[in-house]
Amino acid sequence: MKRLSDIGIGRVVVIKSFENNEIFLKLMEMGCVPGEHVRVEQKAPLGDPIAITVSGYNLSLRLDEARNIFVEEVA
Fold this sequence. Notes:
By secondary structure, this protein is α+β, with helices and mostly antiparallel strands. It has helices spanning about 20-30, 65; strands at about 1-5, 10-20, 35-45, 50-55, 55-60, 70-75. Strands 1-6-2-3-4-5 form a 6-stranded antiparallel sheet. β3 and β4 form a beta hairpin. The chain is globular, with a radius of gyration of 11 Å. The model has no long low-confidence stretch (mean pLDDT about 90). Pfam families: FeoA (PF04023). Keywords: Iron.
């Protein structure tokens, strides 16, 4: 499994799990739940934050948040 923070722009992944339970509820409220498809849309020039599409809307995540999300690439 990879971390969402390591996924390239334009790639689609599926959320598998979270590393940090403290951030789990916050991410879940934003639509980042296991099984949900996520597309990485953009990364800031220095890599932080990243923009993703999840549950039909755009979301900006800091790298430290994205590092806590384990994903699997969609074939």
